[in-house]
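Pasting as-is:
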Amino acid sequence: MSAPYAKLPAWVDYGLIPLINLAVAFAVAGLVVLAVGESPVRAAGLMIEGAFGYGEGIGFTLYYATNFIFTGLAVAVAFHCGLFNIGGEGQAYVAGLGVALPCLWLDQVAPWYLVFLAAIAGSALAGAAWALIPGWLQARRGSHVVITTIMFNFIASSLMVYVLVDVLKPADSMAPQTRAFAESGQLPRLDWMFSWAGVDMGGAPFNLSFLLALVMAGVVWAVIWRTRLGYEIRTMGHSPSAARYAGIRESRIIIITMMMSGALAGMMALNPIMGDQHRMQLDFVGGAGFVGIAVALMGRSHPVGIVPAAILFGMLYQGGAEISFEMPQISRDMITIIQGLVILFAGALENMFRPAITTFFATMGTARAGKTLPAGE
């Protein structure tokens, strides 16, 4: 997306501003904790301890972060084209079919890595197909992608209820879910990544899809900043009129970008379905599509920023559970409020302090320039 303010140094734009937003969010959250009679300092300590203080907590933090890396990348790719894809939730939900069907068909006849490859392809294709329709409607009919992707979230939810209840649910089951996958339909855990340090991740579902998320972050960087297609996407995002003048087909780029975004959101389904639940259940996305918006904004739509932003939100999810357990005065609803405040300041209000910071650095730059001028000029 085109920058709404003057260009700032990279360390300010990608580091200082997100840190200020985050600090304000936690300060306001501390006031909320103080209002219910608890210590904000103790709450912050419990959150960090719950997220990074022991092996299982680290595993759950990275498990949640995996979801947010995928959805954050999905939103970021659309941002670079000037599109606001709010449909990551629905795209990931429908992509659950692209994961579950290969697992149900192949888990008893093929090794896990072949099932995994089929599930990657299935989830990406299903997510891309669900994003294709809003993209086509924007490109060819002028329907705003924000409205259509929101609507498609609700359509996806209703569709998945029907599929799970009336199509995929085993005949002898009352729960709206598929049968459990055999071992070949389950992703290997990544406990070995921390075992060298003596860290035991216990029952945390930290799995191979985390490495896939990091690979996709690298792929997004390469495509957006090192290919002709990425140049066309960024040009369209900065100035559609300049892109049209340069001969870039607007409708083609919009459709391709939305499909790329949907494919990334769709791959998020691999983590909960193959890596944790080992079946497809209702509501497995759990709001990750919407959190991806805040992750992309906090990470400045760059993979290098999105990965740590996703880990931060993974910390909020895991550490928040620890707070609600250790501090009964702070209910799970209060944790949701704290998470919402971070999303608010990191997402919706991420430009709150930018004008003042831009003015400050512009003033400093002018002052430095004045000092370097020769006397008498």
